[in-house]
Amino acid sequence: MLKDKVFPLNGAGVITSEPETVNKIPGNRAVWVGIFSELTEFGMFFVIYVIAKAHYSQEFNQGPLALNTLAGTLNTVALITSSYFVAKAMTAIRAGDALASVRWLWGTVAAGLVYLLIKGWEYGWNMERGIHSDTNPFFTMYYYMTFNHLLHVGWASCSILWAIYQIKRGGYTTESHAGLTAIACYWHMVDLAWIIIFPLLYVLR
Amino acid sequence: MNMKTFNKLDATWAILMIVTLLNALVAETAEPSYLITAIICFSIAYKGRLVIDHFMELTQANDTIRNLVRSYFYFFPMLVLLTDIFSEQLAAITRLS
Which of A50, A101, A108, B71 pairs as cysteine with B83 (C-beta 3.0–4.6 A)? Predict the structure, then answer.
């Protein structure tokens, strides 16, 4: 009864053809080498953060109060929404709706652009208040982590643009879209890193 | 498109938004305490798990990859909480001179 077999998709709901992620490496091995390398890099930042916080508790207690929480929150909203758009794009390509997949990916690019614009505005807002990378160890961590993450959002956005191009030229189809899956996983990794960075810098004191 | 799938993704996004806004509320109002740190660390782990399982779709993917990515979101929130509780000891063992 293989014909009647169904597979869960995105945590719920079903499709009748086996998704490429079930019991397999999603996308390809190369992207996961990259993803784990990036997660290791961000992991080192987090270890340095907790050590620096232990040594400079006063600066790390006052630092988040000086930052623009609204900007950090809007950045989080933009990135989580972008991940949601990518998940919708994956669902659409599997359902055979390439046009919808492209639309969701354009939404992802737009959300990434919103993130970059907010972060640029936030840096300007900080500078006006005399918050620089050498102000104290907290702000050194803040600029190092957020600018590094910003670069990741930038080049991950370029990879989404590549995915849009590939779908439009027929490179990624309902039957064959491992490249899109790899790009989607990388984008989610960028979102995951921010899910830790946001509370470390803007919330915890 | 399957409506159930559509709803599940929407619900995941909505939960992530609510937790993010609650985090922002904590940032603006709460005084630092171990309880607040624990709640925030739990929210990091919870948000990470939602993205990993529902957006990244690792629930049924390769075991090694799923377990490694999930464990990242057990390890680092726990590290942040423990180093907050034992900050003096951490400072002592990481002092260079």
Answer: A50
